[in-house]
Amino acid sequence: MKKIMLLLLSIIGWLDSLYLTLLHSIGADSCGLGGCSDVLSSTYASIGSIPLSLLGLIFFSILIVTLIQSKNDLSIETYKQLYLVVLVGACIEIALI
Q1: Which residues make Cβ contacts (< 8 Å) with residue 66, sequence separation at least 6?
Q2: Closest Cα partner for 13 from 95, 97, 96, 89?
Q3: pLDDT per position as a tens digit, 49-76
Q4: pTM (predicted TM-score)
Q5: What is the DSSP string of 83-97?
Q6: Local structure of residue 29 (DSSP, 8 states)
């Protein structure tokens, strides 16, 4: 159950990152939710020419692959560390929206 929850949260983060990366790459003016153009055109939206949403996409992709390939019998400490990584990633992504 813990693994499924982590996987679900990671997939949600991946989908959000994918959506923002696609909007950034096509230069969309709005996303239907309001405020996306402000975020995507901000000076903080990228590091050099790399959009932060692409970094989020890579981050969540690595988490998803790690969770899928991991054994079902992970220790409690490993779950705590994974939850912390997902929580930090989600908080950063939410703060940047």
Answers
A1: 82
A2: 89
A3: 888 888 889 988 988 888 888 776 677 7
A4: 0.71
A5: HHHHHHHHHHHHHH-
A6: S
